Amino acid sequence: MHQALLYWDGIASLVPWDREVYEEAISEELKRLKERGLYHPIALGTRYRQPLDDLPHSEVLSRALRGLAARPPSSQAFVMDAFLFDLKLPSFLEGEITRLGLGRRLENLESRRGAGLAVSRDVRLLVLGTLANEVALATDTRAYTPYTDQRSAHETLLRSMAPGFGVAAWRVELGRLLPMPAPGTPTSEVLAFREKYATERERLMNATQTMLCDLRREWEHPADVLERMRMGLKQAREDYQAATRASRMAWVQRSISVTVGVATAAAGALVVPDLAWAAGIAGSIGFNIATREICPLFRARNEHPFSYLHQVDRELA
Predict the structure, then answer these.
(1) H-type helices in the chain, by residue range?
(2) More exposed terminus of the chain, fewer Cβ within 10 Å: N or C?
(3) Distance from C-alpha of 267 to C-alpha of 65, rounded to nearest angstrom
(4) How far is residue 13's CA from residue 129's CA, in Å, rounded to a whole number?
């Protein structure tokens, strides 16, 4: 949450649409952030309660659920140690999960509120990751970017379903470029830093986003993009580092990798460009770059190209 508060305009998450359940499920800290306009709860409502086949990622989701159901009964997929609110879950998915034996119905004995499904953690990450991605692709009122600290949720939606089916993408490791406050830092201090050094913070994020957008459009010439952005990125990084030192807060570096989908014009070509020079330039600025293959987008809001994985348990040396 602290990482997202520093490097994005705000954060959002999927919540139960019932008001009373929402009030119990959302932490007081998130409620305070909502009052400041920094947190936006997203209730799926009726817009995402259509049949499974109507979701652009339905084949990915169905294939992944069937894959989990095909595992041996002793696997983690059948250890029901997690929970899904039925007020957060489209009704068609509840039927699919129970039919495959991946979840069982739980009822609140006092009322209908808070009822839901007992599922494994794998199932929960898969379902909520898919729904979050749908919101990011389809929402018109705000521009959302998928952002998670769960690798399995991140990879399930990105990996190609079959060899040769995927399209080209960049994977950029930004952890050294975007430090985060050390664990235990009060949120009030993070917000104070966000406000005091807004100019430095926004300059670094604007430069980073510009670089990612240019990499998306210029697949065959990554070194040209990085050489063009080198001075601006280095200056933005140095100014931000000066701000972190002046803050007297403790900072750490954690792995933050962004997957950047290639623009439509280049999507048919998986020829990997020469990264030797580009990697050297990236290293001099403070990040790493590589290529990967991902599943193609079936639908997107302005072909939104980014998905972030924040590995909070992986500290960079």
Answers:
(1) 2-7, 19-25, 28-35, 58-69, 91-99, 121-138, 151-158, 187-196, 198-217, 222-247, 276-285
(2) C
(3) 27
(4) 11
